[in-house]
Design goal:
The chain has helices at 12-24, 61-82, 117-125, 168-174, 181-214; strands spanning 41-43, 48-50, 85-88, 91-94, 136-139, 144-147. The longest helix has 34 residues, at 181-214. Helix 1 crosses helix 2. The protein has 220 residues and is an alpha+beta fold. Strand 1 and strand 2 (48-50) form a beta hairpin. The protein is built from 5 helices and 6 strands. 39% of the residues lie in helices and 10% in strands. The model is unreliable at 1-12 and 176-181 (pLDDT under 50).
Length: 220
């Protein structure tokens, strides 16, 4: 095992087994020095050795094994002579340099997410997203930072008021009595809940439209 620049892994077992096999092999010379007409090139970060030396026509199995043996020996030599090796309680560790050979992705590039109806409309009209603000807002009355939404949010502050200004037109539409304080608070909560439900319905419609397009169907 080996380590990337940011982590260490034990390498003695795997490299040691290969090294001992190379040294004890009776089929090939036991020398650890490998010389080739065309020098090897290495990418130690990927444990890669490139051999540009051509093979003979119709190489035998012995020739292929000898070439593979030389490549493995050259890679081990390069690792042991250029990479720092340290010893710790976990074993002997080697630090590999960053890889230089780009490797292909394991999975395809994700498809671009389908734009929602609002995103298409905003792009057509040139509407830009508002800069995102924090989740807290300063309450001048309590001199504290409170959440804009959710539990104890500013969007619920009017629900607990014992007196509120009434919009006659809205109250007539909602059939809420002018003197009914409980009705006014309930109307405020109902309006907030209805906004949430309306947004949820729009979200489901956008998701349904996107699924139909993925299945090959037409949009709504």
């Amino acid at each position: 095992h080996f380590k990337r620049p940011e982590r260490q892994v034990q390498f003695l077992q795997d490299v040691g087994i290969i090294f001992l096999w190379l040294r004890s092999s009776t089929e090939f010379p036991s020398s650890i020095t490998v010389t080739k007409p065309i020098p090897y090139t290495f990418d130690l970060g990927n444990l890669l050795v490139n051999d540009a030396n051509p093979l003979p026509p119709n190489p035998s199995q012995a020739q292929l094994s000898a070439t593979a043996r030389d490549c493995a020996q050259a890679l081990i030599n390069q690792l042991l002579t250029t990479c720092p090796v340290t010893s710790s309680a976990d074993g002997v560790l080697m630090t590999l340099p960053p890889p230089t050979t780009p490797l292909p992705r394991e999975k395809p590039v994700p498809a671009e997410k389908e734009k929602t109806k609002w995103e298409k409309f905003a792009a057509k009209k040139g509407i830009k997203d508002k800069k995102k603000e924090g989740k807290l807002v300063f309450d001048e009355e309590t001199q504290e930072w409170v959440p804009k939404w959710g539990y104890k949010g500013r969007n619920k502050e009017r629900e607990q008021d014992w007196i509120v200004e009434v919009d006659d037109k809205k109250e007539k539409k909602k059939n809420v009595g002018k003197g009914d304080l409980g009705g006014i608070g309930a109307a405020s909560r109902a309006e907030r809940v209805e906004k949430i439900r309306r947004n949820q319905r729009k979200q489901r419609a956008n998701e349904s439209r996107a699924r139909k397009k993925e299945d090959g169907g037409g949009g709504i």
